[in-house]
């Protein structure tokens, strides 16, 4: 039977056999409904068209207005792996000629996760799931014990990362040129995009993804376990740059983790870096995926709420030039120019600023999904809503994620040369993250009361003499670009 592949199901592990026929559908309506980053749209279409070219006569590649139109044009029964969003799942289930198969592209099965979570009695924490995954799939295990004797291994060296070779840049071809022409034409027709166009920076084929993975294993994996940091002159640091490849199905998670483990066993990479990579891929990534489906209706979806978005225009449209706070301007510029920023910038800068200002989590999920090349609803809900709601779901983490300018100063070089002082809470030179942090704690103190990890911060809050000035200042700042 012909296998229908979505744009996030493009690897060989989504097919059964070397000769299985394939259906690929480009839906123009996907980009008409919401304004995606121009480079994300390019990557999706480039990957679909490259896969069609690789498969040759095995692939039926349709360019249509909607998926429904594509299925109608094909007219025969197809099968598809379980989609990665509820909207797509509900759609394929509604089609009489579509058979839905179990999910692929993740390590733990739905059934295994549900059995594990059901046994946790409402306390399905990430750390516990990560141990379960390690044990179940025999990753970094020495017998019945974790390699090195600990489940999490952290680098104690506080020095900052050394300069690393840049990740390999894909070489664009005629397919990319065709995609760029089509997107130019769509824009002229009124389809809106955000961000800047630019050379494709992420893999669109499995060969490109494997090349980037190999470069990561050799050059970045030995440094991967370092504490989170942000440097103004290095957008990549030791981050893998593999998230798009995993999320588009170009790479398979468990084999990638096993290759990383081989680097550790061979003495080529320290346990700290390999353990952290495993934690992110078979732990955090799978955990977010399964929570999205396990909690389902009770887990907020990213559908836009009625009314105006809570996100101000300068942020939504990536207007980095209007922002004077150096870290926030750099983060917005990174997304504008690449459709990507590494995780510390997503959390400590972009997400943190939104949390402090009280922007609706569903609006932020939608923004992250559209603005980031690796943005998917299942991943962004856990990262954004879980963070913004300070673990109120009871499933994600016990730690509230809102930090002050002092944290950004410790973990980055952005504060040097910035017009704002991270040590100042009030006044013209006050850092918007520092004032915003204490104002936020003031407004949420009752809700955060009892969160053990916030006890110290709330005690400090009670001792701040200029708290009323901070609150007044931040209220006056509102949603203006800082």
Give a written overview of the molecule.
It is a single chain. The chain has 482 residues and is an alpha/beta fold. It is built from 20 helices and nine strands. It has three domains: 3-101, Rossmann fold (3-Layer(aba) Sandwich); 110-170 and 190-298, Serine Threonine Protein Phosphatase 5, Tetratricopeptide repeat, CATH 1.25.40; 313-477, DNA Cyclobutane Dipyrimidine Photolyase, subunit A, domain 3 (Orthogonal Bundle). It is 49% helix and 6% strand. The strands form three sheets. It has a five-stranded parallel sheet, with helices on both faces. A two-stranded parallel sheet has the order 3-9. Residues 301-305 and 390-398 have low confidence and may be disordered.
Topology:
Blueprint: E1 3-5, E2 22-27, H1 28-33, E3 36-37, H2 38-55, E4 59-64, H3 67-74, E5 78-81, H4 86-94, E6 98-101, H5 110-118, H6 126-137, E7 141-142, E8 145-146, H7 174-189, E9 193-194, H8 206-220, H9 243-247, H10 253-265, H11 271-295, H12 313-316, H13 326-338, H14 343-357, H15 361-371, H16 377-388, H17 405-411, H18 432-448, H19 455-463, H20 467-477
Parallel strand pairs: 1-2, 1-5, 2-4, 3-9, 5-6
Antiparallel strand pairs: 7-8
Helix pairs in contact: 2-7, 6-11, 10-11, 11-16, 13-14, 14-16, 14-18, 15-16, 18-20
């Amino acid at each position: 039977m012909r296998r229908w592949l979505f744009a996030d199901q493009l690897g060989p592990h989504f097919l059964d056999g070397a000769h299985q026929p394939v259906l690929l559908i480009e839906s123009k309506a996907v980009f008409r409904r919401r304004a995606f980053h121009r480079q994300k749209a390019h990557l999706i279409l480039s990957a679909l068209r490259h896969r069609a070219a690789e498969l040759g006569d095995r692939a039926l590649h349709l360019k249509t207005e909607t998926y429904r139109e594509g299925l109608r044009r094909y007219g025969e029964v197809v099968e598809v792996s379980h989609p990665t969003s509820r909207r797509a799942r509900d759609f394929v289930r509604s089609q009489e000629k579509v058979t839905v198969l179990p999910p692929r592209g993740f390590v733990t099965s739905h059934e295994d996760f549900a059995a594990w979570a059901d046994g946790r009695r409402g306390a399905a924490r990430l750390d516990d799931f990560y141990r379960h995954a390690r044990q179940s799939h025999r990753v970094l295990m020495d017998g019945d014990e974790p390699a090195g004797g600990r489940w999490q291994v952290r680098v104690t060296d506080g020095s900052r990362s050394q300069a690393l070779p840049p990740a390999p840049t894909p070489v664009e071809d005629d397919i990319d040129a065709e995609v760029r022409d089509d997107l130019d034409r769509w824009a002229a027709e009124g389809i809106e995009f955000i961000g800047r166009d630019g050379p494709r920076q992420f893999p669109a084929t499995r060969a490109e993804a494997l090349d980037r993975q190999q470069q990561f294993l050799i050059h970045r994996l030995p440094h991967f376990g370092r504490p989170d940091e942000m440097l103004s002159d290095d957008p990549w640091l030791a981050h893998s740059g593999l998230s798009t490849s995993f999320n588009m199905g170009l790479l398979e998670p468990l084999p990638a983790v096993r290759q990383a483990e081989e680097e550790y066993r061979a003495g080529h990479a320290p346990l700290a870096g390999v353990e952290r990579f495993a934690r992110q891929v078979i732990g955090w990534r799978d955990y977010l995926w399964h929570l999205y489906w396990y909690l389902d209706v009770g887990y907020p979806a990213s559908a836009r709420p009625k009314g105006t978005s809570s996100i101000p225009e300068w942020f939504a449209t990536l207007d980095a030039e209007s922002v004077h706070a150096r870290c926030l301007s750099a983060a917005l510029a990174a997304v504008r120019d690449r459709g990507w920023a590494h995780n510390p910038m997503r959390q400590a800068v972009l997400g943190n600023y939104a949390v402090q200002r009280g922007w609706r989590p569903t609006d932020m999920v939608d923004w992250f999904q559209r603005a980031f090349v690796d943005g998917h609803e299942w991943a962004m809900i856990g990262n954004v809503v879980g963070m913004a709601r300070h673990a109120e779901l009871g499933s994600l983490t016990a730690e509230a994620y809102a930090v002050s300018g002092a944290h950004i100063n410790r973990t980055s070089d952005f504060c040097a040369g910035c017009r704002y002082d991270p040590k100042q809470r009030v006044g013209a030179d006050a850092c918007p993250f520092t004032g915003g942090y204490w104002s936020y704690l003031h407004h949420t103190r009752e809700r955060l009361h009892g969160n053990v990890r916030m006890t110290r911060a709330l005690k400090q809050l009670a001792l701040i003499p200029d708290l009323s000035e901070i609150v007044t200042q931040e209220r006056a700042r509102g949603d203006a670009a800082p």
